[in-house]
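Justification of resources, computational component.

The compute hours requested in this renewal are based largely on the per-chain cost of generating structure records like the one below. Each record pairs the submitted sequence with a full structure-token output. That output is archived, and it is also reused by downstream analysis tasks.
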Amino acid sequence: MHVVSIGPGDADHLTAGANMALQAADVIAGYDGYLQYIADYLEGKEVISSGMRGEVERCRNALSQFRGGRRVVLVSGGDAGVYGLAGLVLELMSPAERASLLILPGVTSATACAALLGAPLTHDFAVISLSDLLTDAKLIEKRLDLAAKGDFVTVLYNPRSLSRRHLFLRTIDIFLKHREAHTPVGLVRNAYRDEQRVEIVQLTDLYAQDWVDMKTTVIIGNSQTMSSGHRMITPRGYQICRTDEAVV
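The structure output for this chain reads:
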């Protein structure tokens, strides 16, 4: 059995290992929204699909097929080990089954979006999901505060949904206590997909970005992050002469 990470969903960012596993599978299981990105692989396969909040049932169905001797691929967006299904599958497996599971890595949203923005993650950074479906909101706020105090570049997954807006606004409040109002913030929606949108705003202007949703990744710079020419740059710390900037 394979847990296959498909990255942002476009063919250019699917690894060779993921490609081979998908081609060889008898059964492909995944979230409806992700299976559309690998539609070319589904022909001739048995497909197990489900919507949001169907993760446990989906994994159990995939495991049932695996235990029946079939070659099963469980698909996860981005990287399966970053807010993905790799952990859930391992929890549901016996120790012997865990030893045989192959987890194939992929391009997670943090690095995919960072590439579109420039180089915002070239120093220490934290990744925090604002979804309070499986994590208590108070714990999320605590982690946000610690990341802000620690001057980490901070990547926000699942920043805002139709029913959950307060945590996104609270996040801005928290970071404004520890960062300058002009701190660069990168916003990427639908990275490497249709209707991709990439913008860089100031931290204080983040309140007004009503288009931010669950398909958006937010990268808040640290105290050294700068923006220039539609690019975010977080210096790594190399001692360079500023005249080097003009060298081609």
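The radius of gyration is 20 Å. Helices lie at 16-24, 32-35, 55-67, 86-92, 95-100, 109-117, 137-149, 166-176.
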